[in-house]
Protein 1
Amino acid sequence: MQSADLHELREFCTERRIMLCFNGPMSRSLIEEIGNALRNHLEADRVQPGAAMDVFAVYIELTQNIRHYAARMNYGEEEASATVVIARHGDGRHEVSAGNVVEAADAEALMHRIADLAPLDRAALKARYKEQLRAPRDPDSPSGAGLGLIDVARKSSGPLQASLHQRGDGRAFFSLTALI
Amino acid sequence: MQVTDLSIAGTQSTPEIRADAAAGVLSLAGDSYPENAFELFGPVIDWVERYLAAGDAPLRLDLRLLYLNTSSIRAVMDIFDLLEEAFTHQRKVSVDWFYDHRNERVRELAEEFAEDCTFPFRILPDEEAAG
C-alpha cells in the first residue's frame, strides 16, 4: 500500500481554502467535537456570530442527517462513513459539503427534492419550511430529515448543489454543498 | 400542586432545563442540537402538560436558547402549541425569549415562532447575554 502523500493533500486543501475536512464514520461525539473546532475557527476568523451560527447549523443538519440515515439503514462502518469539507470562499462566504452512501432509489428521491427547492425564493422556502414543520411526523424518521434539508436551503445563499456518483452496487455516493 | 420540578444540567449540545411549578416558570438556556430532541424534550413536554392540567396558575417560559437544530425546533414548537391551546382556554401563559443583541439569528428564530402564537410572546435583547 502506497503511503499517503501528505504534501499533495496539504496543497489540495490550501488551494481550496479548506479549513476543515473529515472522512470516516462519525459518532455523535465526533460531530460535536468537529463542530467545536469549526466554531473556534469561525470565531478566530472574526465571522459575524449570525453567519457563524448558519455555517454551524448547516454542518450539524447535514452530519446528523447522515447519521440518522446510516442508523436507519443499519449500515456498517464503510457505508456509514461521511465525507465532510468546510471551505472559506474569497468573498467571505463559507462552503459546507457533506457526502455519504445512500440507496440508489433514495438518491434519486433526494435529487428530486433538491431540484424542487432550487427555484424557491426566501419567502417560498419559508412557507415550505413552516408547512413541513406542521406536517405529520414520519415515525421512521423522528429526526425530521425533510425539515433539515429545507433549513439548509434557507441558510444557503444560492440553490443547493447536489451530485451523485453511482457505485454499481445499487447504491450511490450522494454529495451536497451549501454556500453560506 | 403535585407537579414535580425538573432540573436538567446543560451540556455542549443540550440546554439547561429548569421547571419550577411553585413559581410557574419553565426556563431553557443554551444550545440545543441533540440527535434526538424528543428524548430530551419528552419530559419537558410532559411537565408542561401536567402543570397546565394541575390547576389554573400562570405559566411563564424564560428562554435563553441559542442554536436549535430542526429536531429541537419541532420539540419547542410542541411546547408552544400546548401554551397556545391553554391560552385559548383563558389560561395566563407567556414567553420571554432573551437573545444576545449581537446575534440577529436568534432573534429571527424567536420571531418565526412568535408568528404562530397569539399569547404574549416577548423577544428581548439581553445586553448581558454575551458569549
Protein 2
Amino acid sequence: MAGAPMPEDAVTTVLGAPEIGRALTRIAHEILERNKGGDDVVLLGIPTRGLPLAHRLAERLAAVEPSLDAAHLVGELDITMYRDDLHRHPTRPIGTTTLPADGIDGKVVVLVDDVLFSGRTIRAALDAIKDLGRPRAVQLATLVDRGHRELPIRPDFVGKNLPTSLSERVAVLVEEIDGTDAVTITAGEARA
Amino acid sequence: MRHLLDARDLTRADAVQVLDTAAEMAATQSREIKKLPTLRGRTVVNLFFEDSTRTRISFETAAKRLSADVINFSAKGSSVSKGESLKDTALTLQAMGADGIVIRHHASGAPHLLAHAGWVDAAVVNAGDGTHQHPTQALLDAFTIRRHLADRGVAGSGEGFDARRGVGKDLAGLKVAIVGDVLHSRVARSNVQLLTTLGAEVTLVAPPTLVPVGVGTWPCTVSYDLDATLAERPDAVMMLRVQRERMSAAGGGYFPSPLEYSRLYGLDQRRLATLAEHAVIMHPGPMNRGLEISAQAADAARSVVVEQVSNGVAVRMAVLYLTLAGSGTAAPVPTSKELA
C-alpha cells in the first residue's frame, strides 16, 4: 500500500490477497456464529465477482463444519432483470440464476457481493429472492463497504469498511476472473 | 437491437446472444413465480392484420411475463375494416405511447415500412409479413434445435438446467431438412437464413410447384425427393404446413391431390422409421394431420412440436427484452460493475 500522494487516476491497492483471505475467513466464522452453525445457510453469489467470493466462503464454512458440503451451499443470483436502471443503460446481457438443490425456502440466505455502494443491487437481489422462494432470513455479506448508501440497506458481514469519495472508483479483482486478488481505488471523474 | 424485422439482419453473434438470453428466460419459466418485473411500465401493442392464435398468444404471454402492458389490436373489428391506412393506425399507436409494436401483416414489407417510415418511435418486431419473414419463429426453431442437438459430438456437456443446454453454441455441422410448402412459407425463408447464419446445412424439400422463384440464390440446397434427403440422415426434420388458404380449392394446381402430396412429401410411419436415432421432428403449427405429417409422427417421442410452443414464449421474451429494456439502439455491452 503506497503512502505517497497519488496523482489523478492513480490506482491504489488497499487490500491484497492475504488481507482478502483473512477477511473471508473472519466472515465465514461470523456467519456460523450468527446462525449458530451452518445447517440452514445458503450462500447466493451475485455475479460477476460475488460468485467466486461465495464459493470461497462456502469452502471455509465446510472447513469449519465438516457436516457441510461446500458444493451444495452456493447458488448464483443474477439480478439484471430486477434492476431499476435498465432504461438508463444499453441493454445488459442476462446472467445465470441457479439455486442449490434444496432451494431457499426456510433457509437463511446470505447474499454475497464484492462491493456494497448505493444498495440498489441488493434491493434488486431482495426482489429476485422474493420471486424464487421464501427464506427464513436474508443476510448480506460484502467484501468492501464503500458507503454512500441510497437506500436503507446495511450489511451483516463486512470484509473492510472503505470510506471513499463519490468520485473514486472501487474495484475488486478476484483470482478466478482477473487472475489476481486485490481491492483497488482509482481516483476519477465525479459520478453524475 | 432496435427492431427485429428480418432474420438476415442478425449476425451469428447476435443470433447466439438472442438464443442465450432465451435460455435464461426459459429457465425462469420453470419457476413457481414466472413473472419478472423487467419491462414494467412499458407498453407492447400486438398489431395483427392477419389471423393468428399461437403467435399472438405467445407474444402476449411473453410480454406479460415481463410485466409489460399488452394491448391487442386485430384488424377485424377495428377501424382498419373501415379503411384506415397503416400510417394512420401507426400514428394512433404512437399517440397512445406504445413502446413496442409486434406486427403481423398480409403484405410483405409492412413491418419494415412501420419501422422506418418515421411514424412511430417504438421498437418494431416482425411477427410474420406476407410470404416474406417470420424471424421469431426461426429463432425459436433454432433454439429448439440447439437445445436438443448442439451437444452432439461434444464430450462432457449436458450439466445444469435443461433450459440452458447448448448455451453459447451455434448450430455448426447440423443438417436440417425443411419439407413442404416452401413457396408460401415465411417460416422456411427465415429459417434458411437464420439456420445458415448459425452454421447449419439446410435442405429444402418440396414439389417443384411449391419452390419459390429465385431459390437458387438462397444459401441452401433444394431437393424434390424426400426419401433421398432422409437417407442423408438429417438431424432435424421440419415439416411445413400446406397453406391451403393461400391456394385455391383442391390444391390450386400446385399438386394433383392431397393424397399424392401426402404420399410423396408427407412424414408418414415408413419415413418416420428411417430417421436417425437422435433426429427431432418439428412443425411450426398448426398441423394438417394426415396431409404433411401423420399422427404417428406428430405424436412420436422425438416430435418437439409442443416444446416449440413453450420455447416460443422464451424466445419472444428474449426479443422483447433485447429490443425494449435498454436505453436505445446501442448494442449490448458486457456487464460492468458500475453499480456495485
